[in-house]
Design goal:
The chain is an alpha/beta fold. The chain contains 4 helices and 6 strands, in the order αβααβββαββ. 32% of the residues lie in helices and 33% in strands. Helix 2 crosses helix 3.
Amino acid sequence: MKKRIIIIACIAVAAIAAGLYGWHEYFRPNVDVAAVKPAYHISTNNLLNEFSKDDSDATKKYLGKIIAVDGKVKKVEKDEKGYYTIVLGTDDNSSSVRCAADTLHMQSIASLKEGSAVSVKGIFTGYNKDETGLLGSDIEVSRSVINN
């Protein structure tokens, strides 16, 4: 009988601990990317070249990390919900770095002009490889802010 009570108590403590951890993670606030130092600082061309040489190694290197990318603004896109995406790259290369703006920093991104030089910081989330060679590949960066 005593052994059964100990087992039930251990299971109850483990369930409560798991529940508290889950609650803490669910309600954890996002870190403001503007206040965090990037793990990597790289130019748009160097980043695109790194992915064109070996995209699997580059993805492992950058995935989930905060990176700062310096480059020329190809265009600034605004979707139907009012969210901005900064597209970095050059006119002679169809590949680009697509930086989805952090909603806390929309004002500074809305004022960007095509062709201007900028440094954008955000979280690397993926790489969309163009298998056909016609459209260009895209490097995806989320929660992006202008890097000061």
